[in-house]
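Chapter summary example.
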Amino acid sequence: MSMPSPRAGRARERVLTMRGIGKHFGAVKALTDVEFWVDAGEVVALVGDNGAGKSTLVKVLSGVHAPDAGTIEFDGDPVEIHTPADAQDLGIATVFQDLALCDNLDVVANLWLGRELVTEGMLDEVGMEERTWTLLRELSAKVPSVRIPVASLSGGQRQTVAIARSLIGEPRVIILDEPTAALGVAQTAELLNLIERLRERGHGVVLISHNMADVMAVADRVVVLRLGRNNGEYNVADITSETLIAAITGASDITMRRRVEDAARRAPAPEPVAVMDDDETPAGIIRLPEGRAGRTRRAPRGRSGA
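The structure predicted for these 306 residues follows.
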């Protein structure tokens, strides 16, 4: 599979590579021979229609599903991801569309839930709050306070908290599943800025989105899945949203097939010929001019080639 250069034009370190990934559920083939890779400091958009296999590929990468075929490499070494804990240990963090936040807890508690800092057998509330503010400032996040319940935050602020939580532990790759699906225009702009900050921090970002404007705004590359297979890989700097939509819907394949069929219909049909091995000319056959002896053609009805 061809690998176009990044939009920014600078060399990047390969972090994640998936080759020949296959996954089936009974008789249904969700993924077939899928290729996917991510570099450090790169935003890769994974797009496709409903049922294209995006969610299945992400679940394979995040340890929810084990692949039935193919290999996964992380930092150049082959790895196996059987559980979400395996993915987290490698440095792969996933922010699913439902965010999985606890509405009754404040921002600090949500960020450190299950990974609380402890000093002398007691929770280090001051240390967790300081590190939370540091992380949010690095992301240029607009959160009024880290001590208010998450339920009182806007949709964009909740997305920010979920992304900040995924950064605890310094992951190498961050997967964002439809992060702007439920956001307004202003909140979407804030989140896209946050994705830019993740790239600047050197994270590899996998962005799953149906919004072509968001994809064209922040992605470096776009990988298109269709019916569980790769259907194109594009450098964002070289394409338009119409190109992506054609690859997602299969319109480019249909157009090419129609062009081939039209060309075949326009091509003139070859005339039938008969090859004569002697000087005899049977009825209904016209002898061709001198110099093309041995090749004849059938005469029109009502004539004979006597």
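To summarize the output: Residues 1-9 have pLDDT under 50 and may be disordered.
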